[in-house]
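Hello K.,

You asked for the raw outputs rather than the summary table, so here they are, unedited. I folded two proteins back to back in the same session to keep the settings identical. This is the first:
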Amino acid sequence: MDEPEMQLKGKKVTDKFTESVYVLANEPSVALYRLQEHVRRSLPELAQHKADMQRWEEQSQGAIYTVEYACSAVKNLVDSSVYFRSVEGLLKQAISIRDHMNATAQGHSPEEPPPPSSA
């Protein structure tokens, strides 16, 4: 065989070999194997991220509930100012009645000043 013919056959063999390797490297089962390897390597990290996110969500929900409860308590305090004013008026009235009763019990009217004490 002469040299050019040998080179042509060698080129054909290497081309067929390259094509076979390319087909094998890109075969669907190889792709699935590579996908499986990727999932196996990255799944633990993804599971940890998911657990972290769930924990952060629970903490956030707790904080949101606390803030909503505090806002409700403040709103209720503002709404109860009417009742506080009513209690304040009743306390002033009770003090006035107490002073009147004390003055009556001492024998003089609350409008008159108490008698001077003899010293």
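The second followed immediately with the same parameters:
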Amino acid sequence: MSFSGKYQLESQENFEPFMKAIGLPDDLIQKGKDIKSISEIVENGDNFTVTITTGSKVMTNTFTIGQEAELEMMTGEKVKGVVARDGNKLKVTLKGIESVTELVDQDTIVNTMTVGGLVYKRTSKRM
């Protein structure tokens, strides 16, 4: 299955505690908690471009599986990381945050981020 497509956030769990744990200020947490972000993924072989639009904020990350890339985190900070693919999952660890994006079926993506035992789960559906 290909990750390519546009997906809209359908549900999320532990948004506020997770964002506090990674250092996002309260005003941004309150602004972002009810916004249904849109993720657009372009997969071309091992090359990916992921664009996440949350209100007026647009974050784009481009990477190749298995190669180091500079990736922007939710906090706006840019860090280097290597994205690995394991079947229908993309995995990366950035600054202690483990992120797994799974293509559950052709229309559903589940992104799970874990920091210090705190799990933030986002479920998005293909548009």
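The chain has one domain: 5-122.

Happy to rerun anything if the numbers look odd on your end.

Regards,
P.
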